[in-house]
């Protein structure tokens, strides 16, 4: 029987012939060794939170939620080893009970550790060193496309691990991963609001030098700079709960609610007032002097978010030193798009600062520091086609300005865009995939198209 799986934001629907949930490594091996029972392509699935069909398959989908044990927390090597289906928020809770945390705690608590180990990820507010989770991976154990057990570590096979850190399971299914950890840390977030016209690239560089890390939110033409630094004292510790509530429920629910006024006499008024209303929490946070929290508490659990409270987004990375010019151009682009098609994103635009990082072959900050441009939107059934049209137009705009997309977080990217963004590294990756999986057991239509390969039937 064909199953139907829908991704978190509703943007990806997959109908695999087989949906299986192994509980042991032997079962994963048996699945990969038996193409008759478990037709190709075989894709591992974490929590299906990706915004692209990277985990989708018309053949077999392997749901990894049956393998989610913490194996070891090692204080000597400061590492945690766990099964690949464990969600990062559950792993963080286990660490926290021992006064420990991951080196990087991306806000999405539902990303599985398997996905964190081999896919693109980003986190600005924890990015004191690196902003990509896989850069902290030290050991990976997996089952190859032919069903053999494999293992690589940063000590024994650093070059292979570099490829595997952005391999998206195209070299097999990960069952166990080891990440670097550190003692639990309290951090402080502070907020400053600026008008887009006041923003200067030099001031951004100064802010980067003066803080451990930072992220930006743009609402209309107002830019919020959120900084992160270590905290020694508690401040406004009631705020993190509200912040989680905004992102896991309230923000998207309110943004969707406003869509009801579209096409009515109230539509113009709500369109004009919403960016101002969105500023209220940030202005309040700025006036209160921000807040402090234990770093893992910035993770958000979306497991109980109703569909009315869900949002979607895209992410393209741009060279840090061109960000202000790119942001101004983006605001012009999005306003022109609204004039032409009547569509505009209904949640704040995110911009992540991520440091130069060559830990993975497809690192999007391989060439230097980046700051991203991430339109965020809570689509309604009525405006999803408008969101999709916006995403395609944005991809063209971003590609023309030298942006780099993420294979799990930039919907509708084309082969030409990916190939131009990653350059010779894309050719190298393509060659590695062909060698690691000569039978193309793992290659779904999404990756086949991007890599220019024929898809599995
Ligand atoms: C509301 C929301 C907020 C988000 N916030 C962030 C954020 O703050 N930071 C961030 O980086 N991302 C964020 N994301 C994106 C999301 O974290 C990534 O797309 C992530 O890859 C999803 O993890 P997953 O476990 O759901 O993997 P899936 O989407 O299920 O799979 C992703 C890819 O990993 C492969 N894979 C999964 N498990 C394995 C395995 N065991 N072995 C081999 N391959 C495997 C799949 O085949 C697929 O190619 C967000 C997404 C949503 C919907």
SSE order and pairing:
Elements: E1 5-6, E2 13-14, E3 18-20, H1 25-33, E4 42-45, E5 60-63, E6 70-74, E7 79-83, H2 88-96, E8 100-102, H3 113-118, E9 137-143, E10 149-153, H4 158-164, E11 173-183, E12 186-195, H5 201-210, E13 213-219, E14 222-230, H6 239-259, H7 267-288, E15 291-294, E16 312-313, E17 316-319, H8 323-341, E18 347-354, E19 370-377, H9 384-400, E20 404-405, H10 415-422, H11 424-436, H12 445-451
Parallel strand pairs: 3-5, 4-5
Antiparallel strand pairs: 1-2, 6-7, 7-11, 8-11, 9-10, 9-11, 12-14, 12-15, 13-14, 13-18, 16-19, 17-19, 17-20, 18-19
Helix pairs in contact: 8-9, 10-11
Bound molecules: flavin-adenine dinucleotide (FAD).
Flavin-adenine dinucleotide (FAD) binds next to strand 4, helix 3 and strand 11.
Textual characterization of the structure:
By secondary structure, the protein is α+β, with helices and mostly antiparallel strands. 32% of the residues lie in helices and 23% in strands. The chain has two domains: 67-183, Uridine Diphospho-n-acetylenolpyruvylglucosamine Reductase, domain 3 (2-Layer Sandwich); 186-414, 3-Layer(aba) Sandwich (Vanillyl-alcohol Oxidase, Chain A, domain 3), CATH 3.40.462.10. The strands form four sheets. Strands 12, 13, 14, 15, 16, 17, 18, 19 and 20 form a nine-stranded antiparallel sheet that branches. Bound molecules: flavin-adenine dinucleotide.
